[in-house]
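FORM 12-B: Structure-to-Sequence Request
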């Protein structure tokens, strides 16, 4: 299980803000999320550029996706490296396959 109280993050900092960095200071980190079209229409803070808070974290909505009106549009997608520790996962809970 990941210990999120000691999370190490690598970020790019604009030169104009380097003077604001202080050793031991706290920082607010947002993670990227992609919101399905149906989800975006039903909940606040799900527009591109907005910040969505769930699972005790802030997620920056960076895109919206469609999936031909399917149930996938009711989901929020993100990178597994970001989502799995937050939800204390060690493996993918769902695998989707196209059978021919």
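FORM 12-B RESPONSE
SEQUENCE OUT:
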């Amino acid at each position: 299980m990941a210990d999120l109280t000691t999370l190490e993050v690598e970020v790019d900092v604009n030169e104009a803000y380097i003077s604001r960095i202080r050793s031991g200071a706290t920082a607010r980190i947002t993670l990227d999320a992609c919101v399905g079209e149906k989800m975006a229409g039903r909940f606040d803070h799900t527009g591109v550029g907005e910040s969505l808070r769930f699972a005790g974290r802030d997620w920056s909505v960076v895109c919206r996706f469609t999936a031909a009106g399917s149930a996938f549009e009711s989901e929020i997608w993100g990178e597994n490296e970001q989502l799995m520790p937050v939800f204390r996962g060690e493996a993918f809970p769902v695998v989707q396959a196209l059978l021919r």
